[in-house]
Amino acid sequence: MKTIKLLLLLTLIMPVYTAYAQKVSVPKDEESSFELPHIRVVPIKDRKTERNYELYIKLPEGYAENKDKNYPVLYFTDAMWHIEILSASTEYMLEEVILVGISWQKDINEELKKEVGEHVSRFRDYSFRESDKPEIQSKYQLGQANKHLNFIRNDVIDYIDRQYRTDTNSRTYFGYSMGGEFGAYILLTQPDSFNNYILGSPSIKNEVPYLSEFNSKLGPYEAANKNSSLHANVFITYGSLEQEMIAPIDEFVSLLKDRRDPGLAVLKEVVDGDHQSAFPRTALRSVEWLASVMNPVSGNLKEVSFWDIPQLNKAFINTTPEDRKDGISVGKLSELSADSDPILKLTQEIAAGEHGNYDALLIAHKNKLVFESYYKKGRSNLPHPQASATKAYTCLAVGRAIQLGYLSMEDLNKPLIDFLKNLDRSKLKTGAEKITLAKAMTMRSGIRISDEDREKMEKDSLQLIGQGQIQSMLAYSDPITDASQTFKYQSDPEFVMQVLEAVVPGSAKDFIKREVLDPLGIVNYKWLTAPSGLPEAGWRTSMTSRNMLKWGILVQNKGKWEGEQLISEAYIKLATSRILLTGDDDIFGGGEAVSKQGYGFFWWSADLKYDGKTYFCQSAQGGGGQYIILIEELDLLVVVTGHDNDNKTLQLTAERILPAFLRREQRG
Question: Percentage of the chain with pLDDT > 90?
Fold first, then answer.
């Protein structure tokens, strides 16, 4: 019903904003007549310039009752023009937010006001360059954005934070047209002013070179310097008919993205209309986008690139996870230590960014999800890129094929090329028959292709289609010998997917969906296609955190899911065992409490040490920080997503998560 009402609202206001308003002035006898239910108008003075303005303040409906709650604040310029549509939009899509509109200067020169309109001060306050035409500069005093920003920072925000219960980590700026230009200036001069920036059709046609100068003064992003990050979410729009906007806005977006700043998320959208009619659509879409930075469930980001997903302003931590009827049983973290729970302290540190860029942390104990949390780009309903954790899923797909009789446990040690009937064996390098499924799944195929030869091989993409991929790899490789069949993290999973494609009925893609994903109830995922035409075997999948938990539960329960043996217990035991030691020189996510790193069938293993005792763990791992960690002795399962290669997840599991469950075990 609310959606229908919102669409009706858009229909009603479109004619108003089609005539939008940079030329509209308020009649003199109505100068102080602004009234709207629930809106408080507060006079405020710029203490530096002595200019007088007004704030239009709207509090959430439940503000008075929820006395212990702090609220995010949406600040917007051109308050008279924007208050009604932003009030209506937030009412239906973002109810719990404080609105603060900043008016134009009230006590400005009357003759200028009469000639240009009530809004004349915006030309001075929102612009950051003086005019090169003396008569224009003399009349409008352009280029005072720095003064207006200081007023907003030192007077407006200070007043709002003192008078109301605000969440100081969730401030948003909304500006349209010149207000969007002003927002771009704020972002690149004092980015910490706001957490989120909504820049609608910013009038930066001739301003990008100057914005580029501001960016240069900020300096580049440096991974070792957290202060070099802009720490901002940016939503930029323009109308489909605003042709003159395309080039400068694209250039500005590129300027921001070229910073390679993981703390900066930039999303650009083209909305229908020209400069006037695009405004109401921008208002509605931007509020919808803003809701996605304040909620771990995002309704409008499913087709957005991971790097464009805005970062949550506030971590969402649930010690009593919701039962979503998705096949995952839930419990309560309160069953653990109630006094000094190290898990909650850890999550507070993660939320503060003390351990890098984590997106989610889920913990299950004895087959019950007891803790669920989301940070930064983490969302409960958005699949997260998995990188090499994909290899673990490929391993389990092979296990399912064995369970259904398309392969056998004995087949694991047969020459892999025996399953690939389309290969021309006369063109394979010596020793190709030494590669078995077991060797490929432990990264010991022995394939060795020089960078030069790999570049030659990949030039002709057509020859890599289907089994041509394996034909080429076994043609370009050096001879495969016992000496070359040592652990090397490379493209071995592609061999495994080729075998799966060859032995299952239909295609490997259909098999994985029908026999693995569907039984687990995994429907919200991405599994991309490799150049061979087969499903990617080693990377490029995306899974929600709860779906990652399902993969872990399947392994934790020795291949059973809801009472059905999807994969044999013998295969699970072998696949996740420490078949070989890879060494402790470079343990992903490791630390002093992590040792004896090993490898099974695309599953990692290690010993986690706490209080003088070690606990064997098995894990699926993906670059950037994707983990499914199982500690069988404690019946414990930990799922983590992140976008930070320099993480210490296994170390944190050992020193911060294990203790809570050990105390519970000790209490019986």
Answer: 88
For residue 353, the SS3 value is coil
CB 142 within 8 A of CB 130: yes
- Return the CATH class of domain 316-386+542-667: alpha beta
Between CA 555 and CA 580 the distance in angstroms is 19
Distance separating alpha carbons of residues 240 and 495, to the nearest angstrom: 47
Query: In whole angstroms, what is the distance from residue 363 CA to residue 662 CA?
Result: 14
Residues 259-286 have pLDDT tens digits of: 999 999 999 999 999 999 999 999 999 9
SS3 76: strand
Q: Does this chain's domain 2-27+42-218+236-308 share its CATH topology with 316-386+542-667?
A: no
pLDDT of residue 541: 98
pLDDT-based confidence at 585, cuts 50/70/90?
confident
Domain boundaries, the chain: 2-27+42-218+236-308, 316-386+542-667, 407-503
Residue 584: per-residue pLDDT: 84
Structure tokens at 1: 């019903």
The rounded distance, in Å, linking the Cα atoms of 103 and 110 is 16
- Among candidate residues 103, 94, 93, 118, the one with its CA nearest the CA of residue 39: 103
Query: How confident is the model at residue 663, as a pLDDT?
Result: 67
CB atoms within 10 A of CB 291: 19
State pLDDT tens for residues 486-522.
999 999 999 999 999 999 999 999 999 999 999 999 9
Written as six digits, the tokens of 529 are: 């296609």
Which CATH architecture describes the domain 2-27+42-218+236-308? Answer: 3-Layer(aba) Sandwich (3.40)
Q: What is the mean pLDDT of the chain?
A: 92
Interhelix angle 278-291/2-18, nearest 10 degrees: 140
CB 642 within 8 A of CB 624: yes
Asked if residue 632 has pLDDT above 70, the reply is: yes
Crossing angle for the helix pair 243-257 and 208-218, to the nearest 10 degrees: 10
Distance CA 377, CA 384 (A): 9
The CA distance from 543 to 590, in Å, is: 23
- Our measurement of the distance from residue 319's CA atom to the centroid of its chain's CA atoms, rounded to an integer in Å, reads 22
The answer, as to whether pTM is greater than 0.85, is: yes
Q: What is the pLDDT of residue 299?
A: 82
Q: Which are the contacts of 663, defined by CB distance < 8 A and separation ≥ 6?
A: 336, 337
Q: What does the block give as tokens for 456?
A: 């030659």
Residue 192 sits at the vertex; the CA angle it makes with 189 and 193, to the nearest 5 degrees, is 85
Residues 437, 412 contacting (CB under 8 angstroms):
yes
End-to-end CA, the chain? 51
pLDDT of residue 341: 78
User: At 372, phi and psi to the nearest 5?
Assistant: -145, 125
